[in-house]
Amino acid sequence: MTSIRSISGAFLICALALTGADAAKKSDKPAKQPEPMPQDTPLNTLKNAPKAPSLACDGPFAKDTTHAKLVSEFGAKNVVFKDVDIMRDVKTQASVIFDEDPTRRLVVYWKDNKARARPMAVSVEAPSTWTGPGGVRNGLALKDLVKLNGDEFRMMGFGGVGGGEISGLKGPFSDLPGGCTLKIKLEPGIANPLPPRFASVTGDQFVASKNLVLRRVRPQVSQWSVNYQ
Predict the structure, then answer these.
(1) For 151, phi and psi rounded to 5 degrees?
(2) Rounded distance, CA 133 to CA 192, Å?
(3) 76, 173, 215, 223: which one has the fewest Cβ atoms less than 10 Å from its Cβ?
(4) Residues 109 and 91 sit within 8 Å (Cβ to Cβ)
(5) 67, HSE (Cβ side, Cα atoms, 13 Å)
(6) Closest C-alpha among 86, 157, 79 to residue 121
(7) What DSSP state is assigned to residue 48?
(8) What string of H, E and C letters represents the secondary structure of 199-224?
């Protein structure tokens, strides 16, 4: 994709080449607002991050797993039980694997926190590089996610309740073995929050993955989770 700076440079060259009359006509038109430059987010670090193993609802992450089994699999120094943020000013206790390594970190939430058993969900947030069912991973671009899904889908508008969460997952993202379901969340790749001119893809509304405005903000997977039934 042509960079914003390249577009701006080409626009400037064309403007200098205009005749006086043509330049006067052009000056009557409002200047086109450039899109924000891509922001420095955890997603931007994923290209050079080391690869992490795959995650599925089996083995150490089967529906009968426990904190003790995770310790046995990954080692006591790599598994901690601690308070984690689930939303602003709201915390809960969970088991965190590789807490000191953001590229391998993941969080296991329990239905039974006292026994640290019966997993409710395993959440993987950028810049963690774990790969999940169907090849989902943080940093995956919208067009690649559509291709893996085998069809278009819908997303809840950015910044609203459940902002960026996808519905309509199909193919390798549905009917997962092991009694799990998959949730995937996107975030914009140019600025977060988005400027007001992108209101058509923000707020409490569904947005189609083929929406041209949505594609302009270059969405990428920023968080995904397997959730246990």
Answers:
(1) -170, 165
(2) 27
(3) 76
(4) no
(5) 20
(6) 86
(7) T
(8) HHHECCCEEECCCHHHHHCCCEEEEE
Q: How far apart are the first and last CA of the chain?
A: 41
Whether the bond between 193 and the residue before it is cis, its omega within 30 degrees of 0, is: yes
Question: pLDDT digit string (tens) for 20-68?
Answer: 444 444 445 555 666 666 655 555 555 555 566 789 999 999 999 999 9
Read off the tokens for 66: 């426990």
Token pair of 97 as six digits: 């694997």
CB 165 within 8 A of CB 204: no
Q: Is 35 helix (H, G, I), strand (E, B) or coil?
A: coil
Residue 191 and residue 36 in contact, taking contact as beta carbons nearer than 8 Å: yes
Q: Give the distance from CA 97 to its chain's centroid.
A: 19
The 10s digit of each residue's pLDDT in 129-185 is 999 999 999 999 999 999 999 999 999 999 988 999 999 999 999 989 998 999 999
Q: How far is CA 107 from CA 95, 120, 223, 225, in A?
A: 6, 11, 11, 9
